[in-house]
Amino acid sequence: MSELRFLAFALAALVAAGCVVPVVSDPSPASEAAGLRRASTESRIFDLINAERRRQGLPALLYNEQLNEMAVIQARNMARFQQMAHVLPQANLPTLGDRARYVAYSFGRLAENVALGYPDAETVVQGWMTSKGHRANILNADVEETGIAIARSSAGGLYYCQVFGRRLNSL
């Protein structure tokens, strides 16, 4: 009984302190399948981007968890606000620099590609490669790492974000 009382007290202390206690729920088969498709598409984008870099004689980008977290934040915010943009003033972390500080990515170089509405990895990468600015980010020899995320808005739009970086200490 004392363990139960302790758990109740601990939970009350967390709530009183303004902490959020995560609730774990079993995902539905449909949402789980959608999540797997997004992960597969993100992986495919990663492979296609690195293939483009290799064709230009550049080294492949490495996956970076912090950059990936930044991409997830931006993709979800774009989907939430149904707005494709690099800066979302209404978001808690409106700029790329804000997101880098939030995930503690100490950067020497940082860039971001965003997109909306492409049906698959091939078309979004093709779209980025035909855009001068996006292509420059993909083929930038000064970046070494990347993270990629996709989020679906309540209206069904697919929002893509790829963040490129190079750590300050690697310059």
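Above is the first protein from milestone M3; the second protein from the same milestone is given next.
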Amino acid sequence: MRVIEAFLVIHPSEIVTLILEDHVKSHHGLSMLFNKTGLMRYWFPVSLMPRNGEDWPRVRDMIKLNHRLLVFTSNRSKESSEEIAYQ
């Protein structure tokens, strides 16, 4: 995760997408990891993700808002419990 954070610092106009096969069992384990490594400052919030065929925001707007990290999990329950998007 620190490598991803370093990449985002060095490349301020890049967007990174992570699709995780999630087997983390600890309570809020993934969100704690993203907080600890400083990646939350780049987080694209689940609440802003398009639903029902809506369009994604423009890349320039995502960069402007620093929403440059898209994270998806294979665990459906984490979308509501940790605000990590279900793939």
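Note on the second protein: Residues 2-10 form the longest helix (9 residues).
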